[in-house]
Amino acid sequence: MENPQTKACPFCAETIQARAVKCRFCGEFLTTDRARALTGAESHSHSGPNKESSSKMLFRARPSLWALSGAVVKGLIFLGLAVFLVRYPLEELPIFRLSESSAAADSEDLVGEATEGRVLELTEQQLLLFGRCRVIVGAGLAAVVVLVLLLKMLRLKMIYYEVTADRIEWGRGILDRRVDNLDMFRVVDLRLRRSLLDCVVGVGTVALITTDKTDPEFVFKKVHNSRRLYDIIKKASLDADQRNAVMHLE
After folding, report:
1. Torsion over CA of 228, 231, 234 and 237, rounded to 10 degrees?
2. The whole model's pTM is what?
3. Which CATH fold would you assign to the domain 159-243?
4. Segment 210-225, tens digit of pLDDT
């Protein structure tokens, strides 16, 4: 690629020939140390710092496992039920009684007695089958609860947040991996939510109100250093509004 035929004078900013040694407008020589210093400072200010500052990582985080506290509590309840089904012999409860007669007349008497006294007559094979089904159901329930909790933990830890001066980027998904971003100047408002437990464990939730049609409300859920994230986004959004001359009307 050929160099441009003209350039701007570092002293008066007038357009001059690229090979000029002296500016024809201000009369300054372009080969002096002062001219080289001005040219280097100008190019550095236009290309280096702005680009570097806009791409510099301001915050990086993943959701904390405390975001699954509600799911874990429910899972523990179902796990307790599963352990109860496996360990406790329900077939030995007083409502179950082993049938000792198979005669038709005796069966009718037993049915009447079971209806009156709320006692269920079962054969020995039926009691054994009931016990096996009880253990299978309890073990299956425990396996499902553990699998669901592990899957939720994996999905949560696959989420990441990255914040720069220009945008917010996040990724999510296990097999179907999706990455999206949000321009910082689209942030209209933000708020920080921290419960008592969040304050104890050092996490919080930062919610953003944006003008983005895809994500009108974006949430950083249960992240560490949430107060620092709140301050970073607040300052970055104001700076982005000034750079892009954006004014949010309420």
Report:
1. -60
2. 0.60
3. PH-domain like (2.30.29)
4. 988 888 899 999 999 9
